[in-house]
Amino acid sequence: MSMNYYKMALEIDKEIGYYEGIANNLNNMVSLHRATGKNKDAIDYYERALRVNKKAENIKN
């Protein structure tokens, strides 16, 4: 159930270009996957969050 909310929030953040929110939602998904033992999925979401954070840093600078 939590994952559905994270996904909805992620889509909203993507629509408005809110990179910090995108990264936060992806990191929340990492935590959820880690807690349920889905480590491969957690790594995938972590890598996505990392890419978004790097993109956000490039935009700031």
Describe the structure concisely for a colleague:
The protein has 61 residues and is mainly α.
Write the layout of secondary structure elements.
Elements: H1 2-16, H2 19-35, H3 39-60
Helix pairs in contact: 1-2, 2-3
Main sheet summary? none
* Rounded radius of gyration (Å): 12 Å
Q: What class, by secondary structure content?
A: mainly alpha
Strand content: under 5%
Number of strands: 0
Treating each run of at least 4 consecutive H or I residues as one helix, how many helices? 3
Mean pLDDT: 92
Shape: flat
Q: Terminal Cα separation, in Å?
A: 37 Å
Q: What is the number of independent domains?
A: 1
Ranges where pLDDT stays below 50 over 5 or more residues in a row are none
Range of helix content: over 70%
Order of helices and strands: HHH
Task: Output the keywords.
61 residues, mainly alpha, flat
Describe this structure in words.
This protein has one domain (2-60). It starts with a helix and ends with a helix. The chain has 3 helices and no strands. 13% of the residues are buried. It is flat and about 35 Å long. The chain is mainly alpha-helical and 61 residues long.
